[in-house]
């Protein structure tokens, strides 16, 4: 049990005194970049999905006639 207590005590000390936390401005800029990147990635995947779906429907319909 002492090892567990030491682990948590050391972890809290490390987080308080040794970790360099970003400023609010840096955090907002990083969050904006992540949001923008996620939206771009979602748009690309969505366009690929629509194009593959359209191509496959055309392919399957060419055999149904």
TrEMBL record:
<dbReference type="InterPro" id="IPR005807">
    <property type="entry name" value="SecE_bac"/>
</dbReference>
<keyword id="KW-1133">Transmembrane helix</keyword>
<dbReference type="GO" id="GO:0005886">
    <property type="term" value="C:plasma membrane"/>
</dbReference>
<dbReference type="InterPro" id="IPR001901">
    <property type="entry name" value="Translocase_SecE/Sec61-g"/>
</dbReference>
<keyword id="KW-0813">Transport</keyword>
<dbReference type="GO" id="GO:0008320">
    <property type="term" value="F:protein transmembrane transporter activity"/>
</dbReference>
<comment type="function">
    <text>Essential subunit of the Sec protein translocation channel SecYEG. Clamps together the 2 halves of SecY. May contact the channel plug during translocation.</text>
</comment>
<protein>
    <recommendedName>
        <fullName>Protein translocase subunit SecE</fullName>
    </recommendedName>
</protein>
<dbReference type="GO" id="GO:0043952">
    <property type="term" value="P:protein transport by the Sec complex"/>
</dbReference>
<keyword id="KW-0653">Protein transport</keyword>
<feature type="transmembrane region" description="Helical">
    <location>
        <begin position="31"/>
        <end position="56"/>
    </location>
</feature>
<dbReference type="InterPro" id="IPR038379">
    <property type="entry name" value="SecE_sf"/>
</dbReference>
<keyword id="KW-1003">Cell membrane</keyword>
<keyword id="KW-0811">Translocation</keyword>
<dbReference type="GO" id="GO:0009306">
    <property type="term" value="P:protein secretion"/>
</dbReference>
<keyword id="KW-0472">Membrane</keyword>
<comment type="subunit">
    <text>Component of the Sec protein translocase complex. Heterotrimer consisting of SecY, SecE and SecG subunits. The heterotrimers can form oligomers, although 1 heterotrimer is thought to be able to translocate proteins. Interacts with the ribosome. Interacts with SecDF, and other proteins may be involved. Interacts with SecA.</text>
</comment>
<dbReference type="GO" id="GO:0065002">
    <property type="term" value="P:intracellular protein transmembrane transport"/>
</dbReference>
<keyword id="KW-0812">Transmembrane</keyword>
<dbReference type="Pfam" id="PF00584">
    <property type="entry name" value="SecE"/>
</dbReference>
<dbReference type="GO" id="GO:0006605">
    <property type="term" value="P:protein targeting"/>
</dbReference>
<comment type="similarity">
    <text>Belongs to the SecE/SEC61-gamma family.</text>
</comment>
């Amino acid at each position: 049990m002492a090892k567990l207590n030491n682990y948590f005590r050391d972890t809290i000390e490390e987080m308080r005194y040794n970790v360099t936390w970003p400023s609010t401005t840096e955090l907002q800029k990083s969050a904006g970049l992540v949001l923008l990147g996620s939206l771009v990635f979602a748009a690309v995947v969505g366009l690929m999905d629509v194009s593959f779906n359209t191509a496959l429907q055309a392919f399957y319909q060419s055999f149904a006639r």
